[in-house]
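Q: I'm writing up a methods section and want to include an example of the input and output format. Could you take the sequence below and give the corresponding predicted structure tokens, formatted cleanly so I can copy it straight into the document?
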Amino acid sequence: MKCEIISVGTELLMGQTENTNAGALARELFPLGIGVYYQTAVGDNEERLRGVFSQALQRSALIILTGGLGPTEDDLTRETVARVLGLPLVKNKEWEKRLKDFFHRFKRPMAVQNLRQTMVPQGGKILPNDRGTAPGIYLDLQAGRGPVVVLLPGPPSEMLPLFREQVLPLLRAKLQEKGDLAILQSKVLRIIGLGESDLSERIAVLLKNQDNPTLAPLAKAGEVHLRITARGSTAEVVQTLLADKARELREILGDYIYGEDEEELELAVARLLWAKGLTLALAESCSGGLLSHRLTNVPGSSDYLLAGLVTYSNAAKMQLLGVEQATLERAGAVSAAVAEQMAAGVRRLCRADIGVGITGIAGPGGGTPEKPVGLTYLALEAENFKFSRRYEYWGGRQVVKERASQTALYLLWLYLRGKLRPKN
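A: Here is the clean output for your methods example:
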């Protein structure tokens, strides 16, 4: 079933309200095998809404409109849909009574214009809204031979529960009746150390010949996600397809895959630290404690993380970590030598198995031609092991901090797997 989502509201186009409804609906439809082919946002304008909806009728079997169902003059969705379909609006007396009871219960006068919310295109099914005054409407056109049109209120707190509780069962039953009900599931392999183009090159044959499952590389900050999507008649069939394809990909990409689905890099690092019984101490400057924050997001992190120090000033680097003043004067705070002394100092201070040091220029100011904004040095020290490297990141201050913490986790992941080469 090909689906189209139309989000109605001028506030969406002006950026005053973020359009979260379209993404939420797409995620709910995916497991039923319903593909969202088009998403459109349109303002509170009858002519433009009529054009968008008329186009959707020509190309989509399921059309979901959100917003524009309220009582005011600019709430045009209900009326516009009825006009395009050539259907009269009919008052739903049950909803009229419910509205009156609602206002009476809260001892508020009900303006006459609220009665607009009781009007339904002929043949439409009212979807009661327990969280607001505008109901949803379900229209199965031409006795099931035409498109299905669903009208939902705009506020996400009303829209999503109503969709889950009332629309999904109707769609599931319709697909089952037509023999089109399928199970669609995805598995995501999380990959680090390869860019999207490098990944695509390594699995070019699989990408070219994909059918079921399908593959889709997705570039993320500091890593790449490879989504595997399978379709089948039963959950068992789908899980087998996903497992077989994941196994095939691991044979090609094994050294670069650190996790699956929601397993973030900090969890992969934590699992290795737990398995090896090692402890960790962190000394951060430009990353501002972000690495500590990410690692402590993992429940049970107190088992391996002894301390995370944000030594932002030179004085703190010297007093807390033992960074030498001569090194700061000779090489500068942003240097491999200082990162190494930070890692060594925090490891010694906390008596940890592993110490990590991060120093850099997050910007937007402070850069020079020799040391530009984004320049970062990372160091790692353990027993009989020392490593440091220069990195340059581009982007704003937050991006530099995020990339520095991501790289530090990547270095830890490599070290714990015996894949990081020590400094010569």
